[in-house]
Amino acid sequence: MSITPELYEFITKVVEDKVKEIKVAREEFDKLVKTVEELSKKIDKMAEIQSETLRILEELAKAQRRTEERLNMLAEAQRRTEERLNMLAQRVDELAEAQRRTEERLNMLAQRVDELAEAQRRTEERLNMLAEAQKKTEESLSRLSNTVRELAIQVGRLSDTIGFGLEDIARVMIPGWLERHLGIYVEELVPRFFTIDGAEIQVNLFGVGKRDEKEVIVIGETKSRIYAREVEKFARTLELLKKFFKDKEILGVIFGYLIHPSAEEEAKKYGIKLIATYMR
Questions:
Q1: Are residues 99 and 189 in the same domain?
Q2: Domain boundary among 104, 135, 166
């Protein structure tokens, strides 16, 4: 390694001073040379030390740079941490606000529950009152039910009387009406029972008529007042009787005192004839 100019100048000055001060013989000169050699060795040693020092300084510089890099990384990590902490603080504030609103709602709910409990208490009081009233009503209904049953028996008896009266009138009026309006001649109409699929079916009026030498089965029903529901029920009976008479033509007739408009619409659907006592 080379000697720095400053060190060289220092050495030269020292040597020159020594030469000026000391004027000696050969032996003293040799001693001086020896001293210079020793000094040169020390200088070389110092150069080595300086070289090692420079190397150490370079390593320290590198270590310093790595330290700075790590400090920069730590600073960046610190910045990100602070950002996350800020976000977390904001989230905590939001949760605190949500908690406050939840507590308000819970307080409102508690108040509502108290109100519902009071309403439930009043409802139970009313239910008890209703139960008492219901008990009294059931007792009244029980008495009324007995009265209704007695009335139903009487009405049933009256209905049977009217029914048989209608059948008698129907036996007289229907044959003439069929002949005049449909060209069907039937000698008489009588009650009849049929057994179909193990079930017994009763019809009020049954007769075998003819139209242009073709046989027509006449099935009749009598009702004092004819509504759509009576027509629907009679249509189901006719549908069952078709199994008994198979391919024969069946004419359904309902006879009564009064025909409701709903019955007329329903009768058209099934091809059933409706005849009232006032019809000729």
A1: no
A2: 135
